[in-house]
Each structure stands twice: as C-alpha cells, then as structure tokens.
Design a protein that fits this description.
translocase, ATP binding, 277 residues, ATP hydrolysis activity, transport, 6-stranded mixed beta sheet, binds magnesium ion, binds adenosine-5'-diphosphate, alpha/beta
Length: 277
Amino acid sequence: GVAHALTVSPRTPPAVVPSHGLAELRAREVSAWFGSHHVLDRVSLTMPAGQVTALIGPSGCGKSTFLRILNRMHELVPSAALAGEVLLDGHDLYDPSRRVTQARRDVGMVFQKPNPFPAMSIRENVLAGLRLTGVRAGAADKAMLVESSLIRAGLWREVRDRLDAPGGGLSGGQQQRLCIARALAVRPRVLLMDEPCSALDPTSTRVIEETIGELASQVTIVIVTHNMQQAARVSQQCAFFLASQGLPGVVVEHGDTGAMFSVPQDERTEAYVSGRF
Ligand code: ADP
Ligand code: MG
C-alpha cells in the first residue's frame, strides 16, 4: 500500500502524542455467517466517541465475531460472510475504495491471550504495528512513539531501561500491556479489546483497567468481558449479546451500563447480570 507519513512535532511532549481524534463507531443491522452457520443477526449498536462500551454475554453468542467485524478481521476467514454496515464517524469501513490497512490503523485490536512477538525486542514490538499498517516514521518519531505508547499502556516505568530485551521475557500482564502499546502506536481512533484480562492475575487486571480508564478520553474503546464487575468499573455503555438455542446471536439490550445493571429491561439480561445463567 501507499505509505502514510507521520507528522509528530518533535516538541510535542511524549505523553500527550494525540490519537487521530475521537470517532464514533456504529454497527447497523450487522449479520454474519460462517458458511451456512448464521452467527449474528441484525446487530445495531452505536459505540460513542470517547466512551468505553462493554460487550457481555455467554460464550458462543458472537461477541468475538462482532469485534472482528469492527476492524475487518472477519473477512480473513474464507467462509465468512457479512451483511449490514459498519460506520466509523459515518464512513463505511467496508467501502471497497477504502484500504483495509486504513481500517486496521483506525481500529486497533487487543486479544485475550497476550501475543507479543516473543523474540522481538520490546521496542520493536511497539513499532511492529506501524510496519504492518504501512505507516512510515523517522527515528525521532519512532523513539517518541515507543515512549508515549508505553506510557499510555502503563508499562514505561517498568521497561524504560530494557527496551532492547525480548518481549517474551515479560510477565503475562506486562506482555498484555505491551500489546496495548503496540495497538496504540499507530494512534487508532478505536481500540477493540477481546477479554483482555481473562488470562491475567488480579493485579495485572487492575493495572489494565486503570489504563482503560485513562485511555478512554483519547480513544473510543470496545471491550468484551465475562466479568460483570469489570464491565461496571470500566464501561459507560453496555450491550448484552445472547444466542438462544440454535439461533444466531442478537443484542438483547444495550444502553447505559449503570442503568442496565441496576434496572435491566429484559428478564434475560437480568438473569445474566445477576449470575443466574
Ligand atoms: P463469543 O466470542 O461470544 O464466545 P464467537 O464469536 O467466538 O462467540 O463465536 C460465535 C459462533 O461462531 C460460535 O458458534 C463459533 O463456533 C462460531 N465461529 C467463530 N469463529 C468461527 C470460524 N472462524 N469459523 C467457523 N465458525 C466460527
Ligand atoms: Mg469470544
């Protein structure tokens, strides 16, 4: 693809290198299939700019599939099909004239299992996303991006003296924060997180929750979580996904997290948030 030059002023303090501006992500009547298996049915959801939206619901109801649709990873599966629209600030993410690398740069992803490149240095791990999405940057910009991304991911103080050490030598929680730094380095407008703390201990989980809270004003966040307390702590908006026996996943209810947890409108939501299934 065509390289895209970074324009970071050398005088910008590292901690405040901005993202490319807040963006609203909107799914409109999104349906998905794997072959003949219908896994999502007409999901419509607005994920407001600068807020954290939590996706909750039992396993297998299509949360990960939905998240992957939001940055065009869904189309990497040969049997996958899609209907509906995903709009990033009103622009169709699947517009054929829009490059997929642009979509991946605008909408970053962090997975359940920390997946840094283990043999690659911490520094190179942070910078890896730039290459993958066709962003060109000079040495000074790179150094600044490494520092600012690690600061934003809450990892800088722990690794500043060993940026050339392999990413695989970090603890699980540190590796996940390294993956967050890698996602942030391309300065996405939206950050998707698929159960980012499920593989981590409570301390690392807390650190990442704090990081999410700090990032939320700079980047729109969508997080899948099975932990209701976590959804309540980190999100302002919440969507409850459910796939009833043999049927595709749907959004049963969505809205303000506090309201949904205290006064759920649907009895299935109430049963789920109160731990009755
Ligand atoms: P969740 O994240 O809510 O647990 P998923 O999105 O992973 O749910 O899965 C939704 C449904 O889609 C499941 O029935 C799952 O088996 C199916 N599925 C997910 N990924 C694929 C794939 N790559 N190929 C075929 N089926 C898949
Ligand atoms: Mg999942």
